[in-house]
Design brief:
This protein is an alpha+beta fold. The chain contains twelve helices and seven strands. Strand 2 and strand 3 form a beta hairpin.
Length: 296
């Protein structure tokens, strides 16, 4: 059954537009020298030697909830899905093949599924060379975005809240649904549009609201790096600073803030952030090295 699916190529409540870029099936080298897929890619590429094993293993081992898949069938007529993922990402390798199997069992037209692979390099973090991710807030992968025409109905981020089948049903049936990373979803819906440097007082107030929604410090840290790579420097610094108020005793969040300040040209603020790292973790080698470099 997998072979029959693979030969089919992938075609081309928020107002977003599904990707209209052509399928490119491009492999690139990331900054670590790893060969990865990048951009709008056909499902047939999953049978290339570098990807076949993990795709087939996850696809074949997944047991679809056929009852839910049957319920999905009428709702998926004329719907589209974009799947943003990384061939370097363990979550993507696990969840994307499962989703493909679910959608096929639910009768979704394969041409209405777009696979868009993103980079994990520092300067292009969570970006595609064709930039289909622009304005779509792709912060963790895989991200499965479901569209009715050009309108986003909802998304599953990284992994399902219940199961892929039941999460999809909740979205297409317009039931209340909240994906993973509730804090980032809150930020992007209610805060992200503020194109200014936010005050410490504003961020402290937000931190009190968002802390209960966060699972770990890496949530906003990852989002900050996505913004930094996209040159959204103001929002990026707001996010990294916010994270220090949510996790004031975590040396890692101050390390990331220092890096963000350094990359955006604020040496004094970067040094102050790295000095905070040392106050929390006196033997931190990286912070000592960065302070020395910034003071040269």
């Amino acid at each position: 059954m997998v072979a029959a699916i693979i030969v089919l190529a992938v075609a081309c409540r928020r107002a977003t537009i599904p990707a209209a870029t052509p399928v490119v099936n491009t492999e690139i080298k990331n900054e670590s020298g790893q060969t990865i897929l990048a951009g709008h890619t056909s499902l047939s590429a999953m049978q290339w030697p570098a990807y076949k094993t993990w795709f087939d293993n996850s696809y074949n081992s997944y047991i679809v909830d056929t009852v839910s898949a049957k319920q999905l069938q009428p709702y998926l007529q004329n719907k589209r899905m974009e799947i943003f993922l990384g061939s370097w990402c363990g979550d993507s390798k696990r969840e994307m093949p499962r989703m493909i199997k679910v959608l096929q069992n639910a009768g979704m037209v394969t041409a209405n599924i777009s696979l868009i692979f993103v980079d994990n390099s520092t300067g292009a973090y969570k970006q595609s060379p064709q930039h289909e991710e622009k304005d779509k807030y792709i912060h963790h992968v895989p991200s499965f975005i479901i569209y009715d025409d050009k309108k986003e109905m909802g998304r599953i981020i990284e992994s399902p809240m219940v199961t892929l089948e039941k999460d999809l049903l909740a979205i297409v049936q317009q039931q209340p649904y909240q994906p993973n990373y509730r804090a980032i979803e809150y930020w992007r819906k209610k805060v992200a549009a503020r194109a200014k440097n936010m005050s410490d007082a504003e961020l402290q107030t937000l931190a009190a609201t968002l802390k209960p929604l966060c699972k770990h410090y890496g949530e906003f840290n990852a989002y900050g790096y996505v913004l930094l790579a996209a040159k959204n420097n103001t929002e990026s610094l707001n996010v990294f600073r916010l994270n220090t108020f949510i996790y004031p005793d975590n040396a890692g969040v101050f390390d990331s803030l220092g890096e963000a300040f350094a990359r955006t040209g604020n040496k004094n603020a970067a040094i102050a952030a790295y000095e905070k790292v040392l106050s929390l973790k006196p033997d931190d080698v990286n912070a000592k090295r960065k302070i020395g470099e910034l003071k040269m």
